[in-house]
């Protein structure tokens, strides 16, 4: 899918047909300067399927967000929450240490 092309906007992308998953891994295929992103996933147990799954509001814990790498601890996978802002030891997005297609961000949605 094609994501947003600037650092300020959000883009809603529907996965169709729907999938069942406990883990979701985002594997960026292109980037400008650095691989970086913020995410939220929406899902459901039944229709309608438009309920935030807890990445943005913190129900998915810091430990539930992992990544292939991070440029430093300020830009770790836990910083990849949608609407994340700079505060304390968190910055507004996950940033990979290396710029290659092997980088990924994974979210554990629980059971």
TrEMBL record:
PANTHER family associated with the record: F5_8 TYPE C DOMAIN-CONTAINING PROTEIN, MULTICOPPER OXIDASE-RELATED
Domain F5/8 type C stretches: 1-44, 49-111
Gene3D superfamilies assigned: Galactose-binding domain-like
InterPro entries: FA58C, Galactose-bd-like_sf
Species whose genome carries this gene: Nematostella vectensis
Name of the protein in question: F5/8 type C domain-containing protein
């Amino acid at each position: 899918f094609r994501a947003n092309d600037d650092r300020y906007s959000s883009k809603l992308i529907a996965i169709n047909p729907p999938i069942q998953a406990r883990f979701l891994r985002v594997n960026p295929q292109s980037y400008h300067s650095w691989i970086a992103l913020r995410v939220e996933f929406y899902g459901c147990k039944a229709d309608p399927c438009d309920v935030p799954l807890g990445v943005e509001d913190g129900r998915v814990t810091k430990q539930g967000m992992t990544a292939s790498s991070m440029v430093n601890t300020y830009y770790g996978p836990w910083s990849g929450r949608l609407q994340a802002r700079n505060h304390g030891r968190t910055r507004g997005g996950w940033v990979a240490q290396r710029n290659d297609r092997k980088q990924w961000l994974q979210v554990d949605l629980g059971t």
